[in-house]
Amino acid sequence: MKKIAVIIPVSKSEDTQVVLNSVKRIVALDHDEHLIVRILYAVDINSENDERIKLLKKEGVEVCSRRMRGRRAGAINDALIYLADFNPDFVALFDVDSRPARNFISECVDALENDTRAYIASSRRYISNPVNLISRTIQAEYYTLNFLLKISAFKQFNGLIGVLRADLLYKHKLNEDAIAEDADYATRMHARGYKAILVPSTTIYEQSPVRWRDLLSQRKRWYYGGLQLWRYWADVKRSNNKTFICSWVMALTITYCIIFFLPFVLVSPFIILRYSTSPKISPSVSAGLILYTLALQYAAIAAIFNFVSGRSIEWKSMKRRGW
Q1: 24: containing domain
Q2: How far is the C-alpha of 230 from the C-alpha of 236, rounded, in Å?
Q3: Which of 38, 62, 156, 173 matches a 20 to 30 Å C-alpha distance to 293?
Q4: What is the pLDDT of residues 67-110, one digit of tens each?
Q5: For residue 260, is it within any domain?
Q6: Is the pLDDT of residue 180 over 60?
Q7: Phi and psi for 316 in degrees, rounded to 5?
Q8: pTM for the full predicted model
């Protein structure tokens, strides 16, 4: 019998209803009858009598309550310690806003069992809340990201959302000093010769920012975390995997010069009209893409300035809308 631990970190700012929506979806996931599953929510408590903990226990899942330490990476590392006696074969990581397809775990486990050199299996990403121009613009962005996930030799699943090999995750813990712990872990694993699998037979939805200030805060954090990854340059070179090295370097350079893609954005209405099959993506999104391009360029410059000047990046809660 294979064992899988499902871990969902919950920040202290997450609303009770968001947590309830999450647990109802996670407990409904399908899994192979020969797979033993334990579901654990790692909750950063917001008071001595955090109602979310009572709610989760009532729903029949386990809770690891903690004082915030090490941000998301710390929550996952604490959850791994909590589950050490379970000795899982696989660990599924989700965010509290994740909406995986019912077959997500079973399909990802199958993919990992068929490839011993893979450290993670995950799927294409989609937006669950295309409720305004910002989120519909990010929805359009995700179509590009899904294409890049398919062709890139450096597959970096945001948040490490997916199913991971537990032995590797226990051996190479998440770096709690990294602003982007997901990209940090992905870099270390690829540099060691492991790979990530994109599973085409399942999907996962997640919420996007619905306010420009939330988008700027999120992307400044991502850009700052990307700059920290250059400390692994020697390890990346030692991998001798030219396709991985090329993909990794491009990911950490081109994305900081997003303004150069603005001419392509200007012709995006014709591309959207020709190829989009989603009624949520219309030529009006092109206006959002222009603002989005400018916002990301600002976020990249701000992150570089903070990094060079030795300033850190503040983690801020994101407004949720449209579950």
Answers
A1: 1-95
A2: 9
A3: 156
A4: 877 689 999 999 999 999 999 999 999 999 999 999 999 999 99
A5: no
A6: yes
A7: -125, 150
A8: 0.91
Alpha carbon distance 26, 66 (integer Å): 21
Residues 119-146, mean pLDDT to the nearest whole number? 90
Residue 232 near residue 243, CB atoms below 8 Å:
no
Cβ–Cβ contacts within 10 Å for residue 234, how many?
Answer: 9
d(CA 265, CA 141): 11
- CATH classification of the domain holding 41: 3.90.550.10
**Enclosing H/E stretch for 127:** strand 118-127
Q: pLDDT at residue 43 above 70?
A: yes
Residue 4 CA from chain centroid, whole number = 19
- Residue indicated by tokens 């619905």: 210
Confidence at 115, pLDDT banded by 50, 70, 90? very high
How many domains is the chain built from?
Answer: 1
Residue 54 within any structural domain of the chain:
yes
Q: What is the rounded CA–CA span in Å between residue 141 and residue 138?
A: 5
The residue type at 89:
D
Note whether residue 64 is domain-resident.
yes
Q: Quote the DSSP letter at residue 161.
A: -
Q: Which long-range contacts (CB under 8 A, 24 or more apart) does 251-260 make?
A: 251/152, 251/154, 251/156, 251/226, 252/226, 252/227, 255/223, 255/226, 255/300, 256/223, 256/226, 256/300, 256/304, 257/297, 257/300, 258/293, 258/296, 258/297, 258/300, 259/293, 259/294, 259/297
Is 9 inside a domain boundary? yes
Cα separation values, 204 from 69, 189, 199, Å: 28, 23, 11
The answer on pLDDT for 134 being more than 80 is: yes
